[in-house]
Design brief:
Helix content: 55-70%
CATH topology: 434 Repressor (Amino-terminal Domain)
CATH class: Mainly Alpha
Structural class: mainly alpha
Shape: globular
Number of helices: 5
Distance between the termini: 8 Å
CATH superfamily: lambda repressor-like DNA-binding domains
Largest sheet: none
CATH architecture: Orthogonal Bundle
Number of strands: 0
C-alpha cells in the first residue's frame, strides 16, 4: 500500500469512531492531550503520527488500538 493511502486509511479509522461518538476534533484533542490541528492533519492523512500519538488518540477515543489499524 502506498504511503499516502496508508495515512488516509488510518485517518479514516480515527475519524469514523470520533464521529460515531459525537466528538468534534477539538473534543478528541482535549481528551487525547493533543492539539486539535494535529487531529485534523491525521484524519486527512497529512502527517504520520508516532506510536505515542496513536496511543493518546486510542485513549481519547476509548477505542481498541487494533481497530485503528483496520484495513492496513
Amino acid at each position: 500500500m502506498r504511503r499516502d493511502t496508508l495515512l488516509k486509511v488510518f485517518g479514516g479509522n480515527v475519524r469514523h469512531p470520533r464521529l460515531k461518538k459525537g466528538l468534534t476534533q477539538e473534543e478528541l484533542a482535549e481528551k487525547s492531550v493533543l492539539d486539535f490541528r494535529q487531529i485534523g492533519f491525521i484524519e486527512r492523512g497529512e502527517i504520520n503520527p508516532t506510536l505515542f500519538t496513536i496511543q493518546k488518540i486510542r485513549k481519547g477515543l476509548n477505542y481498541p488500538v487494533n481497530h485503528l489499524f483496520k484495513g492496513l
